[in-house]
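User: Show me an example of a complex going from sequences to structure tokens.

Assistant: Sure. Here are the input components:
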Amino acid sequence: MRPFRPFHNLRRHIVWRIMLTLFAITSLIIGVTNFVLFGRAESALTSHLTEQGQQVTRFLAHTSRLGTYSESAAELEVPTTAAMGQNDVIAVAVFNENGKLLIQKRRPAGDDSSTRYAPPDFSTLPAATVVNHTQPSQEESDTTFTFWAPVMADVTPLTEQGLYFEVDPPPRPQRIGTVAVTLSRQKVEQEDQDIFYGSLFGGLALLLISSIIFYFVLHFFTKPLTRLIQEIRPPSQPTGNKDDLSMLSDTYSTMVEELGRSFETINAMKADLEIKVAERTAELTEAKQKLEERQEVLASANRKLEDALGHLRSTQLQLVQSEKMVALGQVVAGVAHEVNNTVNFISGALPAMRHRLASLAEQLNATMGERGRHRADFAEIKTLIENMESGIDRTVGIVRDLQAFARKDDTGTRQHYSVHDGLDSTLALLLPQYENRIEIIREYHPALPAISCYAGQVNQVFMNILVNATQAIRGKGRIRITTMPGDDGTVSITIGDSGPGIPKDVMPKIFDPFFTTKAVGQGTGLGLSISYQIVARHQGRLLAENSAVDGGARFEVILPLVAPEPAPDPFAVDARQEPLAPGEKH
Amino acid sequence: MKKALLIILPLLLCLARPAAGQEILVVTASSAPPFRGMLDAFRDECISGQPLLGGVKSVQPTSIRELAVGEMGTAELAGVIRDRRPDLVLTIGDKALQAAIQADATTPLVYLLAAAPAQDSRGRRNVTGITMQIPAAVQLAAIRRHLPRVRRLGVLYDPIHSGPFVAEAQKAAGGGLTLVPEKVSDSQQVPARLEALAGHIDAFWMVPDLTVLNHTTLPGLMLFSLTNRVPIITFADKYLAHGAAVSVTYDLKAMARQAARLALTINAGTPADQLAPLSPDSVAVHLNDVVLRKLDIQINREGTQ
């Protein structure tokens, strides 16, 4: 049988423990609050009673001046009666200036609810005691408050003049008597009692209500906690000896220990996992490296294939172009031969014709005199013959330039080559392209040595660059050609124009095959690419930049004085190849 | 001839009779409006009461000069009066009278608004004036005229101070008005004597009695008036502000004109000591309408202010 311990369960359950604590705190707060409020209320009531007594006393002292002055009880009847009518007043008395009692009114004890305490008897007071109250004062006993005040009045006689006019000095009151008013403490005590019981019952009611509210609030908010406690309580001990907090504490400790062990296990697994991850990562890295190497090999092979394909395509195009140029060169050589023959006929006939005409002119002069009209005709014929000779000379020059440009180097051997002649012949062929539009500035070095090279290929290089220059200049402009011997056994030929120049984004691609900035069908994009290969084959350099002097493109061809022997090249350009036709674009 | 005229004319001027004009010095306690009004009334009466000497083109026979007391002390004021050497001095107020008495013993003196002229004059002979005691008969006549419903008129008096005046009033009573006198010998008796009058009088007549009136008894009188619904008829306007209903008091301008006539009489050659002080020959009646309305007093307002 379990012993009866009523507070055991209260201490065991956490809800009840909180309830008891809150109840104790609330009781303490209510008790202290009631105590403070009660003290303040009592003080306020006492202060109120004191103020009331002082007011009644001042009122009585003021209204009893005439009666005190005349020492007339009848005159004092009204003011003393009025004072007695005030709340809590149980006795009043009026004395003359010598302390003699003029009138006294008292409310007998037990008269009504406000006279539980007997009023004082002022008639027994010695006069000296009364006279001492020259200032407002108050006396307090266990049952009463007694207030004293002097009766002040100006009893100075008027002057004769003062009877008629307001000439007398201001009134100078003097004490002509004393009044006393006694108030009962009964009301204060009654009020104190009412406040005490009111606050007591109010506090108890507040305590009861707050306890009920606490209970329900705690019950509501601690429901999850209670459920948790019920769940963690061992089934074998549903009402065990341990209280809720101890059980929670033990459970918490156990959980912390288990959690620690779990963390240790997790850490061990984590370390093992990290090792495995590192191994797997290393394997993956190695595989990735191998894959990248394979990719690099494939990329390298691909690039080689692309280069070979580009080279093959370029060579194929060069072959096509070379064949076309060879055919054109043969046509030009044939045409030049026929033109030379025709010109030879004409040029051979012209001296004889000039001689016959001179004889004819002499005969006519002899016949018709020197004033005949024939002289003018002969002069005109002479001019025509001179024109014909000039045309023949020009035609001979053109044919010579064609022959020089299409010089046969199909032997595959190097030739002694004058750079200036090559430039001039190329310019002569391009004359229609720039005549009356572009100024050619020749800054030829006077001591530029001749070089040993494949002349036809070099002429093709000049042709490609000059064609591009004439096409780049819209309208009028200039082309500046500078030659300069190099210090390292080279010569430098610089061709600059006043065109718009080469855009920066285009500059890296200008020597790529099939790259062109022209519209489709206006250029193959092979001119500069072929020129680059020709110069490279001569072990020279072809440089491109934008000119700071003329503002346009500037190409520099650097050629060795002696070109190397050509290597066997199945795609070697025929030495007779002709320069690109005007209009070729890069 | 011309030289002779220059000698004769000054000699003739020496033989000319001196002018008969006299100088009156008016010493006033203040230049406030009531005193200014009295001075103007005095001047007007002097001008109208004496014919011009030598016809229209002559100068005024009497010149009036003013001297305000202001902040001057009595001795200083007396010195100033002496320096002026007037033919007659008119004083308005007690202080002016006291200074004039101190200044000169021979110059005739007429006083106004002197509450205690006999005391102030110190027995000097050539002093006369207008007293502030309105004759009882005049006051009673005014009461009868303005308060016709008042039949019993109570009065407190100290026989030492006001015995003759009350006796004169008793003689003048009648015509439906009965005087109910009550003697007091000490001011402390006033409340009790006043209570004795309650219910026996229709109005209370306040007389200038130093035993009856002081700062303490005055509120009692006013309280008696209000509690017993008895109007107080007083002799000075100052009591209207304290609660008196009617003031039968002196007419300041009439008093000034009375004084002017006395001055002219003295200037005409009558010695001042042969002219007894005069009482005011007319009164002014002033009302406290608030008190009258609250006490529901019917009054004849004809001639009141």
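The lines above are the inputs; the final block is the predicted structure for all two components together. The radius of gyration of chain A is 71 Å.
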